[in-house]
Amino acid sequence: MTQAELKTDLVAEYAAWLTGFLPNDYYERYREYRWDIGLRRAHQRAAFEGGWLQPTWAPEHGGRSLGLAEAMEIRLEAAMRSAPKLPNVAGPGVAAPGIRQFGTAAQIDRLLIPLLRGDEWWALGMSEPEAGSDFAGLRTRAVRDGDVFRVKGRKIWTTQAHQSRWCTLYARTDPDAPKHRGISCLILDLESPGVAIEPIRMASISDETFCEVILDDVEIPADSLLGPANGGWQVAMSSLNHERQMIWIMNWVEIQRGLSSVRDSQATHDDYASGEVFAELGSLLADAQALRATGYRALNNELAGRPSPEADILKLLGSQTLQRVWELSAAAAGPRSIDDTDLLFERQDALAATIYGGTSEIQRNIIAERLLGLPKG
Amino acid sequence: MDVGLNSGQLALRDSVRDVLRAECPPATARQAMTDPDRWRTVWKTVVDLGWSDLAVPTADGDSSFGRMDLTVVLEECGAALAPVPLLSSVGLAAGLLRLAGPAVDDVLAEIGSGVVAALAVHPPGHRLPGVPMTLQDGRVHGRAVAVPGLPRAELVVTLASSADGPVAAVVRVGDGVTVHEAECTDPAQPVADVEVDAQAIAIAPVDLESALATPLVAAAADLVGVAGAALDRATEYAKTRRQFGKPIGAFQGIKHALADNYVALERARGLTYAAAARLDDPATAVAAGWNAAALAKAAAAEAAVGCGRTAVQVHGALAQTWEHDMHLYLRHAWQGASTLGDSRALYHAVGRRFVGSAA
Lengths: 377, 359
What we know:
The complex is a heterodimer. By secondary structure, chain A is α+β, with helices and mostly antiparallel strands. Chain A contains eleven helices and eight strands. Chain A has helices at 3-21, 30-33, 37-50, 68-80, 90-102, 105-117, 232-268, 277-303, 314-333, 341-353, 360-371; strands at 122-125, 141-145, 148-155, 166-172, 183-189, 195-200, 210-221, 225-226. Chains A and B meet through helix 7, helix 8 and helix 11 of A and helix 7, strand 10, helix 8, helix 9 and helix 11 of B.
């Protein structure tokens, strides 16, 4: 059996599993099911048990020890089949890889399985009122006091903190070190005394609600340190890097949905103005194909042990394309776009894509400085 | 999906790059603009090294050149602005004949040996490539515009309509083939219009979309090369040119423009490699192959023109001079962008197919 056939068999097995899980009317009623938290929770649990949640990981951690290439096939298949979105992406997508890479045996033992099953949700305690793109400028302080860290500070834009049990909290532990080197990552139990969580109303109907998290003399046990003391920067970069490899696939599937919506609304009216949509549509089809080709190219380079600089364009290209595709969808719908609240949500949600996980401006700085070798400003 | 270069192709790329660096610095293109025979010495090297053999498709399982290798070599020639007819003869003309069967074997062997051919597929008044000629009783008749490399060519490859459907047809430059040469955007790669009323030396029925897919990918590879080289030049300059007490590349106005160029370049490169790999895979459906090739060409032209324009901006007034190389890149990019369909026309065609309407 060739490698290609093996891959196809695996994808077919996954597709059969997913079809078996989903309700029969899933695709007809996708507009409702996409908000169905019960279904999305059940899907995560089933994916964990079936070994499809983190395909490269061992079976006890929700995987089946696949290679990177096979795992990408599975993720793309999931995307193309509009598999239910994880209800708490920050958990499996960002916190779990960090715990797996940096966690102690006791931390992994306590935290990983409930996270992967979706029984305990996670928030990422990164942004602060005065530390957004300049993450390393964060001010929340954690001071070691015997067996605990005493923590004071404020986190903001902390998605789903009000629904989460845990938070990867980044705090300054060495105020005298250069700013990147004085940060530690602590695992915070959000039920601890001194933690106050205020949800923030979102501009859209998104269920990924922001919160403000106020930490007023919170005690965190010293053994809750994730990774080395003052090594928080590495933990953050490594966790986000894992997320970045999946962001383009998430963008890609949303782009596919957007392209289909353009096609559908084109079919509903035929006045001459529709023709000018085609060129922008072709350009967006190129973006979508380029994302996929570049994702594969970067993966092949990684597998061959070569540098994969092209991976750094995926976030920037994917997020910008996503915004353009929904704008085109609105144009193609004409005045019908006004009372289409699903479309409104897509447009609003797409605006976040060029902000989260490193803004487009930061991505451009990374490309210019790291890949092109231009000097820092 | 296999879309990257393998280690053999990376080695091929490096060896082509090394040869061109020694034999063909960018100034060569400037010399070729005024010296009509300057291209011949470079071309001799290209033929002696066997790059023109890429014209001849090899049987499956052969370890030698496929379309992916052609892509690699054309990208490097584009980057070097090599004033040779490798793209026009081997990439475009031979590329069109690639699937035309045994009737064109002798023609492909000729092109492989270094005889220069040109591809005439622009009917007057059309933005997209098409069928400019008719075929009757073995004679090719018609007119085509903007034929790349025609002033240097001995053979003209074209598409003609016939009673039995579209054919690829080849005529020899000579009696009945009138070349209308005029000034052009990139005199290092001269183009000309052609009028034909001549006996075909080879005829083969073709599927139009399959036939045009390889030339589109070849044109894309050349433009990806130009884009990458222009970006390299702009980046190097931005690191060394100082204003306000620091390198201009430290300012985000420059930095972000070049980062966007890099995205455009890698977008185009990914599409080009993927399209080439798709064409090398016999399982690819015809329409999917054409779409992939058209998007690659559209993206590559955008990248080349975009990188060229930014490079001029970054170099400032210097780039407005004849002696500076920047106009060479942009001339090549602009001319290539208008060959085989401009980006908007290609995007439009693919977008329209996607919607599936005949509007």
